[in-house]
Amino acid sequence: MVQKYQSPVRVYKHPFELIMAAYERRFPTCPLIPMFVDSDTVNEFKSEDGAIHVIERRCKLDIDAPRLLKKIAGVDYVYFVQKNSLNSRERTLHIEAHNETFSNRVIINEHCCYTVHPENEDWTCFEQSASLDIKSFFGFESTVEKIAMKQYTSNIKKGKEIIEYYLRQLEEEGITFVPRWTPPSIAPSSETSSSCKKQAASLAVVVPDTAQAEGLASEALGTPTGPPEPVAGTPDDKLDADYIKRYLGDLTPLQESCLIRLRQWLQETHKGKIPKDEHILRFLRARDFNIDKAREIMCQSLTWRKQHQVDYILDTWSPPQVLQDYYAGGWHHHDKDGRPLYVLRLGQMDTKGLVRALGEEALLRYVLSINEEGLRRCEENTKVFGRPISSWTCLVDLEGLNMRHLWRPGVKALLRIIEVVEANYPETLGRLLILRAPRVFPVLWTLVSPFIDDNTRRKFLIYAGNDYQGPGGLLDYIDKEIIPDFLSGECMCEVPEGGLVPKSLYRTAEELENEDLRLWTETIYQSASVFKGAPHEILIQIVDASSVITWDFDVCKGDIVFNIYHSKRSPQPPKKDSLGAHSITSPGGNNVQLIDRVWQLGRDYSMVESPLICKEGESVQGSHVTRWPGFYILQWRFHSMPACAATNLPRVDDVLASLQVSSHKCKVMYYTEVIGSEDFRYGSMTSLESSHSGFSQLSAATTSSSQSQASSMISR
User: Fold this and answer.
1) Which SUPFAM superfamilies does the UniProt record give (predicted)?
2) Helix or strand or coil: residue 392?
3) Nearest one of 256, 247, 258 to 224, comparing CA atoms
């Protein structure tokens, strides 16, 4: 398996020429890098005007590896070839390196780049990327991979320190300024020097280099918004090392690389709203920085958020009055680490009454709004305290907990809430303080704990009786001034006291079921399952020619082929798949087949658009201008290629799934609408501006990438 590394952008607050003077002092050897024994110049080229300087070195490295492994390999040193291409005119240095030793067994490639900061010509940016591919190594492939990764990450950490060491050395020698390159034919007068400075500054932003055209260093760095103190170049499309430390925390080089690569994958493939960096990092932490696993659960969560419009829940949904009066929970200041503090008086809450009065879905939606508010408060506290805060603390008071809290429907609702929160808000709980746990608590814990992730469980602190008042108790985590009054503290807590929900507010099972279904289906999207040999099809009847059929769908699972057909006659009533193995449990999920097996393409119906292959995780928007009235059939058909071909990040899970029957099932979430031609400006989905169209409102509310696939063709 190929191991890859991508660094964030590291910013030196020194001019490019001074950084180059410090960099050259690393050769022919560097005492700060013990493994770097020596280097010899193999080739060197200088242009006549001195602007281009290319030097190729053969570097000798003493790898810290077991003596036995070196003896088996038959080498004491490893040799690398490094090619440095300095362009003083454009103020760039590109470094390419590859291994010479064991090149037929191990392939190591590295690319580094020094460029001028796009927004400050007196600062220098640095990036590096690398790949390691071990083909074979005498049966020690895993050992060699670990040694290589360990050596590389240790050198990454030292990289900036080494440059800063030589900068201090230059300063001690009285060298604090190195003049920029100027063409030899121009006298270095003050006027020309000023003009050259402006010219160099303009050239520093546009770097016509092949490597930069590939995206290694041509992205512009943005400026941070919000925080009171400046950060050295927080970017829009790339992550800056100072930004990571300030807003995301101290990450190892490999963790930084995982974040950057997953973020880049989302930008390239996800055609919807991209999560914030701190949220991407949460999914990575939840899966121990396994990119494949983190990507899988994050894509599922993004689809879930879009389907239920969770991004807008704080603005569009208000909790019922019953929840405001009887749900004994609320936000209360912050803990000693700056995390937002949520207080839940579970023992005082009538869970049975809330479930009977509101239903399971309303409770779930309220908990989702609490989590969304928690994410917002984490961002605010990050700015207030000047350090990364990505999780909150929850204080649960169990005083009053008894057997009525173990009412089966209530426990079922609790387990459902835990399942949804665990799947979509990973690593948001920093600490859970459970106070005054009664004797009945072990029973509840036995029921609940299997549904809680191991990482989350380790954050639980449980206190029985008044143990929270002693050493290692509440005062270790919360300042005395904000301990709630009901816990013998000095701070008045505005969290509702809960109490029994009046039975007059209870609703019948039928009313609750209808309410739950309404909450589930408030989204304008529908879900459908697609099986091998059983496509999902929907029928659209067109009365007026030149109408516009629009669609927006997400491929939630598997790969599908999207087709549009036209028929002059209506298909038979829909045939729903009745196979037990294909039964759909999610609301709105179905599989409908309209095209009769005896129909022949070209005689009974015709294809009006070219088939579109859509990969797992893609979001597709498009439109079709109808030429004839009649019946149009939109079809999502199973595509036989394995899901792992959808990205350049192959997943073992996908390969294993391809061997199972369940791999022959795909899932899509779609919305369609027919718009009159007078309300539709011809073009892609971004041109929908009809005030009568629900789809146009969707387009305005959804942040869609301009790279979304679109089909807008007149049928032939």
Assistant:
1) CRAL/TRIO domain (SSF52087), CRAL/TRIO N-terminal domain (SSF46938), Supernatant protein factor (SPF), C-terminal domain (SSF101576)
2) strand
3) 247
